[in-house]
Specification:
single chain, Alpha-D-Glucose-1,6-Bisphosphate, Chain A, domain 3, 15 helices, 22% strand
Length: 452
């Protein structure tokens, strides 16, 4: 029997197909999902991985067996599935493993209105039912099996995004987009259609084997092709999407990466122009520049733990209009508090096209500090290594500590965060300082302790 404790993660289902899970188990998950959400109707979509259509169809059959009417939207990005869940007011399931290798697949699930489902909000119950029914079989449920209908929501998704950002008066822009053979190749042409954009497509062919490079723009090596094409073509901006196209990274006209913190600050300023005095969420690894810009524009910054469940919960509780993470997840109240890299990309295009300067100058106002990026270290004992780092900085004048998420140590000219991975024996270090020399000094001091 499948090990569902390994398969069901904190926020989603994810594993190797068919070794860890397959279509019969997907059908059981569908039945469990419909039961736990008490849904009379759901929406299901999938990415371009070879296993996705079969798994998605099996899940739909399982949900229908419990009486739920299923709207199948077929090929879509994860944020397109969130749109469908919000627009149709239905619980949803997206079949994707994001940037994982081709042999992986998974399910991201949400309640109606794109409200997230995690371990504490239904996923543990879904797993428990799936475990039980894997042994006993799914019991006869509804008096009447639900219906299965197909519906294409791509045009409606694109129209909704375009209604949220005014792109009517932007100057012509040359835009290189690297879809990484992922779902950006499906969504970008429709979203950008009719805009004054000279689109230079890269790897738009949907191919879940990822023949060109891994669809994970967080890794610098996966930006190399985009950077080269931007320089070759004299483009104004380059955009890179991950496999399920819910995250978006940008590079400027020189091919230099734009910090997701700078994007967060820029979009925050734009949202605050529409919603004066509003709350903006940022996780604790985003740059100091983010809360600074929020305050400068009259907003209220709120700092949270890393992870979409914490961001979405805080957004719902605080009524925040926007939230950003260092990993290039961007969340919008106007998008059911869900994350959409495409909407962040439209904000970037509107800001860039609404003035005459290059992107490097535009984002420079929001990129005020030097940063290390995330540095991973394999350790035998995460807690002991973290305690040793804390001890090394204890008693140092002007240094404060907090443990909202891992250990954050802050001084007047620098800060760092040291967090344990939930799934691997790793400690993740992020350092920011007023200059590169300060980053190097703190980085080397912490790593000397962690890697001793």
């Amino acid at each position: 029997m499948a090990d569902l404790l390994q398969l069901v993660k904190a926020y989603d289902v994810r594993g190797v197909v068919p070794d860890q899970w397959d279509e019969p188990l997907a059908e059981i998950f569908g039945a469990a999902f419909a039961t736990v959400t008490d849904a009379t109707a759901i929406v299901v979509g999938h990415d371009m991985r070879p296993s996705s259509p079969g798994l998605s169809a099996a899940f739909a059959r399982g949900a229908a067996s419990r009486g739920a009417d299923v709207t199948e939207i077929g090929l879509c990005s994860t944020d397109e599935l969130y749109f469908a869940s919000g627009h149709l007011e239905l619980p949803g399931a997206m079949f994707t493993a994001s940037h994982n290798p081709a042999r992986y697949n998974g399910i991201k699930m949400c309640r109606a209105g794109a409200a997230p489902i995690g371990q504490d909000t239904g996923l543990a119950d879904i797993r428990a039912l799936a475990e039980k029914w894997s042994e006993t079989g799914v019991p006869a449920g509804a008096a009447e099996t639900g219906t299965l209908v197909r519906r294409d929501v791509l045009d409606a998704y694109a129209a909704h995004l375009r209604s949220l950002v005014d792109l009517s008066d932007i100057r012509p822009l040359k835009v290189v987009v690297d879809a990484g053979n992922g779902m950006g190749g499906h969504t970008v042409p429709t979203v950008l259609a009719g805009l004054p954009v000279d689109l230079v497509p890269m790897y738009f062919e949907l191919d879940g084997t990822f023949p060109n490079h891994e669809a994970n723009p967080l890794d610098p090596k996966n930006l190399v092709d985009l950077q080269a094409r931007v320089r070759e073509t004299g483009a104004d901006i380059g955009l890179a999407f991950d496999g399920d196209a819910d995250r978006c990274f940008a590079v400027d006209e020189h091919g230099e990466p734009v910090s997701p913190s700078a994007v967060t600050a820029l979009v925050a300023a734009r949202e605050l122009a529409k919603h004066p005095g509003a709350t903006i969420i940022h996780n604790l690894i985003t740059s100091w520049s983010v809360p600074e810009v929020v305050r400068e524009h009259g907003g209220v910054p709120v700092r949270t733990r890393v992870g979409h469940s914490f961001i979405k919960q805080e957004m719902a509780e605080s009524g925040a209009v926007f939230g950003g993470e260092h990993s290039a997840h961007y969340y919008f109240r106007d998008f059911w508090n869900a994350d959409t890299g495409m909407l962040a990309a439209l904000h970037l295009l509107a800001a860039l096209g609404g003035q005459d300067g290059p992107l490097s100058a535009l984002v420079g106002a929001y990129d005020r500090y030097a940063a290390s990026g995330e540095i991973n270290s394999t350790v035998a004992d995460q807690a002991a290594s973290t305690a040793a780092v804390r001890a090394a900085f204890t008693g140092q004048e002007g240094v404060t500590f907090d443990e909202l998420d891992g250990l954050t140590v802050t001084a007047a000219d620098w800060w760092f965060n040291l967090r344990a991975s939930n799934t691997e024996p790793l400690l993740r270090l992020n350092v920011e300082a007023r200059d590169a020399a300060g980053v190097a000094r703190i980085r080397d001091r912490v790593l000397a302790i962690v890697r001793a």
